[in-house]
Amino acid sequence: MQNQIHPNKIRQVLFLAFILILGYVILKETKVFLSAFLGAITLYVVSRSFMMKLLINYKWKKWASSLTIVACCMIGILIPFSWMSTVIVTKLAPFLEDTSKVQVYFVQINNYINQYVNLDLQSMDFMSKIGTMGAGMVKNLLESSVSTVSTFFFMFIILYFLLYDCFKVEHWFKQVLPFTSKNSNAVVHELRNMIFSNAIGIPFVAMVQGVVAMIGYWIFGVEEFLLMGILTGIASVVPLVGTMIIFVPLMIFMMATGHLYQGIGVGLWGFIVIGSVDNIVRLLLQKKLADVPPMITLFGAIMGLNIFGFFGIIFGPLLLSIFLLLVKIYVDEFGTADAKNVHVSE
Length: 346
Hints:
Elements: H1 7-29, H2 34-57, H3 62-97, H4 100-116, H5 126-144, H6 148-164, H7 166-176, H8 181-219, H9 225-235, H10 244-256, H11 260-285, H12 294-308, H13 312-345
Helix pairs in contact: 2-3, 2-6, 2-8, 3-5, 3-6, 3-9, 4-5, 4-10, 8-9, 8-11, 8-13, 9-10, 10-11, 12-13
């Protein structure tokens, strides 16, 4: 009789299974809004302190405070995003329509490399694969950004209601966490740091490197310095190689087309200035932002691009960081207790 499962346990398992099934159905049918939901949560965490000041210090109404923050977020996000999207789409559209143009540039780079180094990348079908893969990735990225209009729309609506009911939302969130009070506070603290690191750290470093790259490309006569600067900023999220994905081929291409000194200048600017800016900015931010390991940023960005499109650069590393955090909390919450029980029973 002692081995029988208590009826309460059975009801608990059945009820939990029902919740999981219902949650899966809801998530499956609303996955199109997942990017908007994550974006709203990210903006909520970033703007929360400002919301508290408006409500507590300045005694603003909740609706006025929420609308003000949403309007500021719209201005701060939509204007630069629209400009970047316009530049990228306008400049890359001809190459997406005819990918052979991309391969022409790679062939020129290959011929120049083969002239000085006994390495023929084209003979290994390297150029064709890289050109096709690169054009395909950019095309998928741009196609996914078509849905960003609806994503932004629902993101700002969700953000408004999160801000308006901020006290209820935070109280509910702490209640539903199945952890001790200590670990619940640790989860909230770590989530806040991770969101700040991904939502502020990654875009800020990318923006600074992109602007610095634009200046250098303009100085050394790069024709499409705006586009190259934007792409350099986007590439900065990739650990280790990062911005080199853009400025190294650009350097070789300029040298291959007869602009030797300009190409050398682009290379020096990339390795010395752009690389130094990355280290300096991260050094200045590391005291206020969580230290996200490079591998999490790399694999998170790759995973995020496949799931969320353009927004995956931010949300991918964030989701991966949250997953690892939950594993850590689970081990601390349940694994330690299980180990103690085994030790006591022995």
